[in-house]
Amino acid sequence: MSIEVRKKDGESIGALMFRFTKKMQQSGVLREAKKRRFSGRAINRNKRRVSAIHREVKKKEVERARKMGTL
Q1: Long-range contacts made by residues 33-36, C-beta under 8 angstroms, separation at least 24?
Q2: Residues in the chain with pLDDT values less than 50
Q3: What count of other Cβ atoms lies within 10 Å of the Cβ of residue 20?
Q4: For a disulfide at 65, which of 9, 24, 60, 71, Cβ 3.0-4.6 Å?
Q5: Is the pTM of the predicted complex or chain greater than 0.70?
């Protein structure tokens, strides 16, 4: 997708930039780019499960340490 803005006769650079940024926002290009910026590869189901179990174990360990006063 390309966005093109041509300078009108007697238009200042600031006004041109304003029109360009307005068109960019309306087109949704920036929103889409920001959305895609941090999307990583899909992690398989088993790996997610193992990770969740690990987080739960660590959370319980921290909670137990807090109750014992060692943390």
Answers
A1: none
A2: none
A3: 13
A4: 71
A5: no
For residue 20, give the nearest of 7, 34, 36, 37 by alpha carbon.
7
- What pLDDT is attached to residue 70? 86
User: Which burial class, exposed, middle or buried, applies to 24 when counting CB atoms under 10 A from its CB (0-12, 13-18, 19+)?
Assistant: middle
Residues 6 or more apart whose CB falls under 8 angstroms from that of 19 comprise: 5
From the CB of residue 19, how many other CB atoms can be counted at a distance below 10 Å?
15
Query: Among all chains, which residue has been given the structure tokens 């340490």?
Result: 65
Nearest-angstrom CA–CA distance, 15 and 3: 16
